[in-house]
Automatic annotation (TrEMBL):
Alphabetical keyword list: ATP-binding, Cytoplasm, Kinase, Lipid biosynthesis, Lipid metabolism, Magnesium, Nucleotide-binding, Transferase
GO molecular function: ATP binding; mevalonate kinase activity
GO biological process per UniProt: isopentenyl diphosphate biosynthetic process, mevalonate pathway
Protein name (record): Mevalonate kinase
Domain GHMP kinase N-terminal: 84-153
Top-level taxon in the UniProt lineage: Bacteria
Domain GHMP kinase C-terminal positions: 253-301
Alphabetical list of Pfam families matching this protein: GHMP_kinases_C, GHMP_kinases_N
UniProt xrefs under InterPro entries: GHMP_kinase_C_dom, GHMP_kinase_C_sf, GHMP_kinase_N_dom, HddA/FKP, Mev_gal_kin, Ribosomal_Su5_D2-typ_SF, Ribsml_uS5_D2-typ_fold_subgr
Pathway: Isoprenoid biosynthesis; isopentenyl diphosphate biosynthesis via mevalonate pathway; isopentenyl diphosphate from (R)-mevalonate: step 1/3
PANTHER family in the record: MEVALONATE KINASE
One GO cellular component, as annotated: cytosol
Upper taxonomic lineage: Bacteria, Pseudomonadati, Bacteroidota, Flavobacteriia, Flavobacteriales
Length: 308
């Protein structure tokens, strides 16, 4: 029996915005991955994973899923008794989709009907997003279903709005001076509390207005420019997005990152943005000159995810 690997994901654009109907763009990230496996559960990690799968199976048992997307809970529970666990190196609380990969792996193995990502229609994508949202709500309280969908499809996905998602081609990565990279803030972030802060902010009219008129405009313009590989408008809008986040998403920016975030804006050497909900985990960086940015960000662990 093969163990399909499910990769982590990176939300390049759209954090928080997708809650308010902005566009989003996500990519699979193969550096981190997870797969369902069997073992004698000798290690604490395997034992804990197996126990949490059992809790999760109980949650899924009570979910009313449509016929076409039903999951064989009895088969899942039987495998849990046999020593099933999720073997993953995807860090939790880093905004790269640890629970998304788990949901995708479970659906792939236990869904009664088989779906092949390359043959999935736009309507099925919409349905799967909804199903995955319900399945992932166990971990986050409320989920859009986007993370598991990306992990499941293992393809770049353009989030067009709250309802619609589509497969998309992104320009090939090439060996240039520019880069998109991840910075490790050195601390984990919890999605729940961060999302709560966002919803509190959304109660004020001023914030709602700037979210709609500025954040969403910059965010969507970044996506359009990136997909067309137009670097000048991309970096112009990235700077606006980074300034906006620095002013309005302060609580979501890890303390270790404050100063270097501002430094990027002051020097235009690089621009930073949240990767996922923030509060910790990874931060995304964009630069036209990675060598220069790397020197300025000395002391931080960095991973390049795309070159141009």
């Amino acid at each position: 029996m093969t163990n399909p690997l499910f990769y982590a994901k990176i939300l390049l654009f759209g954090e928080y915005g997708i809650i308010e109907d902005s566009q989003g763009l996500t990519l699979p990230y193969s550096f981190y991955k997870g797969a369902l496996k069997f073992s004698d559960l000798d290690s604490d990690f395997e034992k804990e994973s197996n126990e949490s799968l059992l809790k999760y199976a109980n949650y899924l048992k009570d979910l009313e899923l449509p016929e076409a997307y039903k999951i064989s809970i009895s088969k899942f529970q039987k495998d849990i008794r046999k020593g099933l666990f999720f073997d993953s190196n995807i860090p939790q609380g880093y905004g790269v989709g640890s629970s998304g990969a788990l949901v995708a792996a479970i659906f792939e193995r236990y869904s009664v009907k088989t779906y092949l990502p390359e043959h999935i229609s736009k309507d099925e994508l919409k349905d799967l997003k909804k199903i995955f949202g319900e399945m992932e709500s166990f971990f986050h309280g409320k989920s859009s279903g986007i993370d598991p969908l990306i992990c499941y499809m293992n393809l770049p996905i353009l989030i067009e709005n709250k309802e619609n998602v589509n497969k998309v081609l992104i320009p090939a990565s090439e060996a240039g001076k520019g880069a998109i990279f991840l910075i490790d803030s050195g601390m984990t972030g919890e999605t729940g509390p961060m999302v709560q802060i966002f919803f509190e902010k959304m109660k004020t009219e001023g914030f709602r207005k700037t979210m709609k008129e500025e954040f969403i405009r910059y965010n969507n313009a970044c996506i359009e420019a990136f997909l067309k590989k137009e670097m000048t408008p991309l970096f112009r809008n990235l700077k606006s997005l980074s300034v906006w986040a620095y002013e309005h998403f302060k609580p979501m920016i890890p303390e270790s990152i404050y100063k270097v975030w501002k430094k990027g804006l002051d020097t235009n050497a690089y621009y930073l943005k949240l990767c996922g909900s923030g509060g910790g985990g990874y931060i995304l960086g964009f630069t036209k000159d990675y060598e220069k940015a790397e020197k300025m960000l000395e002391g931080f662990h960095k991973e390049v995810i795309y070159r141009f």
